[in-house]
Amino acid sequence: MTKARHFALPLLIAVATVSLAACKGADKPETAASSAPEGKPGVTVSDARLVLPAVAGNPGAAYFSLENQSKEMVAIASVAVTGAGKTEIHTADMKPVDHAEAEPRTTLRFEPGKVHVMVFDVGADLKAGSETELTVIFADGDKVSVPAKIEAMGAAAMGGMSEAPKP
Question: Which residue, 6, 75, 94, 140, has most beta carbons within 10 Å?
Fold first, then answer.
């Protein structure tokens, strides 16, 4: 019995020390990659918005501007929208492409009637007037995430395209 106590006391002290260290660590801010800012040198993403589908179950669309201030071409491999099942980059003629490219020192605008992102399986929790996150994923693995305004489909949401008149 004495041998058991002889080993139990140091073991108890070690466990208590580890437990206290873990508690103190919880007060420190996380320094993991999740708290580090995402980004791609020389690239800025702005004016992000998600236009909800007019009919539930249909795809929506995402639009944004990507300013490439670098001396290199950047290739966009994909775009992710939080709360959506999948996305596809489409050309003006509605054909899906596996990437889009932004020339050096130019701005590539994803907009209605031009290159854009089709957003499929739009979650019911995405509501007009709120925000979601849009993440541009580049071919080299870099990412840029920005907030995206969520808009209902309508004349303003479609970049000024007019709706059919009501009878």
Answer: 75
